[in-house]
Design brief:
- This protein has a single domain (35-526), classed as FAD/NAD(P)-binding domain (3-Layer(bba) Sandwich), CATH 3.50.50.60.
- The protein is built from 12 helices and 20 strands.
- The protein has helices spanning 3-19, 45-56, 155-158, 164-179, 186-189, 196-207, 221-229, 256-262, 314-327, 375-378, 429-446, 508-526, and strands at residues 35-41, 61-64, 103-104, 107-108, 120-124, 129-133, 211-214, 266-269, 272-279, 285-292, 298-311, 348-353, 370-374, 380-385, 395-402, 410-413, 418-421, 449-450, 465-466, 491-493.
- The strands form 5 sheets. Strands 1, 2, 8, 9, 10, 11 and 20 form a 7-stranded mixed beta sheet that branches. It has a 6-stranded antiparallel beta sheet with strand order 7-13-14-15-12-18. Strands 5-6-19 form a 3-stranded mixed beta sheet, with no helix packed on it.
- With 527 residues, the protein is α/β, with parallel strands linked by helices.
- The structure holds flavin-N7 protonated-adenine dinucleotide.
- Residues 41-46, 64-67, 131-135, 138-139, 142-146, 242, 273-274, 312-315, 317, 321, 467-468, 495-496, 506-508, 511 line the site of flavin-N7 protonated-adenine dinucleotide.
- Residues 1-20 form the signal peptide.
- Residues 36-84 form the FAD-binding domain.
- Pathway: Steroid metabolism; cholesterol degradation.
Length: 527
């Protein structure tokens, strides 16, 4: 489609919308046979940035999201389940929970749950389980909210083709502002009971001469202070996080997506999964969308067309979709970089057993606020994470982000019809080695040992999972330097799939800032 026809199509649908009097658009599900100027696949960070900025530029956008809307309370009056009591809402189409910490005191803690389109997907590949958020807001619904801008000196290794000054002067500040990133009040943090585990983490880090940093977050820290004071309904302080926060968290539906909807130009259809995108005449794309029931069954299949499609299904979702579409001949001109460069952000977990004089607290805020930075010397940044069990565990728990050079590839398996990932469990060894540069030293200083009861029976390292999938359609390789897919003008990637495997810190601020950078250029040049 030419620039002119795109603008005309956009303008005509805007005019039609105005005539229909839907300036403040009510949610409307995508219908079979519809034509939309822009279709966005997925409503996480990348998809939300694309929706807001395109709408502000005058373009009608339809976001298709496979997960639920998460706007309606369940029978207990709450939208989201507590981390300590997973139920039907907690897992994406599983009949048994798959909790990141599978054991406690050596006993398995997973339980049966009804199969439902729940909020957290523990997606199993041969060598790794990838945790992802499912629903309007993507990962922002389930994540820890840690909003970390990488150190400037590390940026070159993250996205070598991107102008560093532009990112740090314009796009990181823009992303942080829109996401509502805020800092914990340190004076409060120093005494709050719910951050005793953080202060113990600091004491142990500093006694071993590691740099300890308080980290910004998108959880409303003023709200959390009120939670601790008992003046508002509790969320983080009551252990909510992994399966959603009923209060306090500035997830995407409260920030980017709220502003996108307020333009009147953005519609979001939940419980619909995009399964195919292929070029048709007139420069348009035919998109196949499956409507899902809450048991995961396909209740309808819709064929729509779009002038442009933004892939924002997350690193795994976008990579799987593009790998399949290239292999099955629907997008054969995609280049051979599709599916490559996937990494786990070097995630590895561990716990330490503290002495009885170092309790970490029976009430722990589920929102992490601090990390140990040993990136330069040891290639590890360890988040001091909560263990919100409701009882004193005398444990310190950490999620480390490490410099792990291993990269996996997605490929289409014609015999099973699935897209596989060739990650191997043994590829976590560099992450374990990097994390040990911190925790072996702390254990030596403190005279303590690793916990062996959290990930199985006598297993120290949580090396079977990641929370931070990145890559699979890497910037400047599978796409041009702004996310335009090679081979198909009008197709874009705008999510974590663009980032080659590692960000040196928690990734969503970088995903958001990169999306802001790319969409600004796409609006300026392509529209
Ligand atoms: P993402 O947010 O995953 O959104 C993709 C969306 O697309 C999802 O809503 C999918 O349901 C949807 N989708 C997928 N396939 C399809 C399809 N075919 N059709 C329609 N929709 C589809 O992608 N990061 C941090 O920076 N700080 C943290 O503290 C942090 N903690 C985390 C804790 C947990 C438990 C988890 C799981 C993740 C955490 N992350 C954290 C990672 C962060 O949430 C993740 O990097 C971003 O959400 C990725 O953003 P994307 O836009 O790439």
């Amino acid at each position: 489609m030419t620039r002119r026809t795109f603008v005309v199509a956009t303008g005509s649908s805007v005019a039609a919308a105005a005539l229909a009097g839907r300036a403040a658009a009510a949610p409307r599900a995508i219908v079979d046979g519809a034509h939309v100027p822009v279709l966005v696949v997925g409503s996480g960070y990348g998809g939300s940035v694309a929706a807001l900025r395109l709408a502000q530029a005058g373009v009608d956008v339809h976001v298709v999201e496979m997960g639920m809307a998460w706007d309606t309370p369940g029978p207990d009056g709450k939208i989201f389940a507590n981390t300590t009591a997973p139920d039907y809402r907690s897992y994406w189409l599983r009949t048994r929970t798959k909790q990141p910490l599978s054991n406690f005191l050596g006993f398995p803690i997973d339980r049966d749950v009804p199969r439902y389109t729940g909020i957290l997907d523990a997606e199993d590949f041969s060598g790794i389980t990838v945790y992802q958020g499912r629903g309007v807001g993507g990962g922002s619904l389930v994540n820890g909210g840690m909003a970390v801008t990488p150190r400037r000196e590390n940026f070159g290794a993250i996205l070598p083709s991107v102008n560093v000054d532009e990112m740090y002067n314009v796009f990181y500040p823009r992303a942080n502002a829109e996401l509502g990133v805020n800092n914990v009040d340190q004076a409060w943090w120093e005494t709050a009971a719910c951050y005793q585990y953080g202060r113990v983490g600091r004491k142990h880090a500093q006694r071993s001469n590691f740099s300890f940093v308080l980290v910004p977050n998108v959880y409303d820290m003023a709200y959390m202070q009120q939670e601790q004071a008992g003046t508002v309904p509790k969320s983080a302080v009551a252990g909510e996080l992994l399966y959603g926060n009923n209060h306090g968290k500035k997830s995407l539906p409260k920030t980017y997506l709220a502003r996108a909807r307020a333009t009147g130009r953005v519609a979001i259809t939940p419980l619909h999964r995009v399964t195919s995108v292929a070029p048709v005449s007139g420069g348009r794309f035919a998109v196949v969308v499956e409507q899902l029931g809450t048991g995961g069954e396909v209740t309808a299949t819709k064929q729509v067309t779009a002038d442009r499609v933004f892939f924002a299904a997350g690193s795994v979702g976008t990579s799987k979709l593009l790998t399949r579409l290239k292999a099955t001949g629907r997008l054969p001109n995609l280049n051979n970089e599709i599916g490559k460069g996937w990494g786990d952000n070097g995630n590895v977990m561990c716990g330490r057993a503290n002495h009885l004089w170092d309790p970490t607290g029976s009430v722990q805020s589920s929102v992490p606020t601090a990390g140990i930075d040993n990136w330069a010397a040891g290639g590890a940044f360890a988040e001091v994470a909560p263990l919100p069990t409701g009882i004193e565990t005398y444990a310190s728990f950490y999620l480390s982000i490490t410099r792990n050079p291993n990269r996996a590839q997605f490929s289409y398996n014609a015999s099973t019809g699935t897209v596989d990932l060739n990650w191997q469990t043994a590829w976590k060894q560099p992450s374990i080695d990097a994390a040990k540069t911190i925790f072996d030293r702390i254990n030596a200083t403190e005279g303590t040992i690793y916990r062996t009861d959290l990930f199985g029976v006598y297993k120290i390292w949580g090396d079977h999972l990641t929370y931070h999938p990145l890559g699979g359609a890497v910037l400047n390789r599978a796409t041009d330097n702004y996310g335009r897919l090679h081979g198909y003008p009008g197709l874009y990637v705008i999510d974590g799939a663009l980032i080659p495997g590692n960000t040196s810190v928690n990734p969503f601020v970088t995903i958001t800032a990169l999306a802001e950078r790319n969409i600004a250029r796409i609006i300026a040049d392509d529209l």
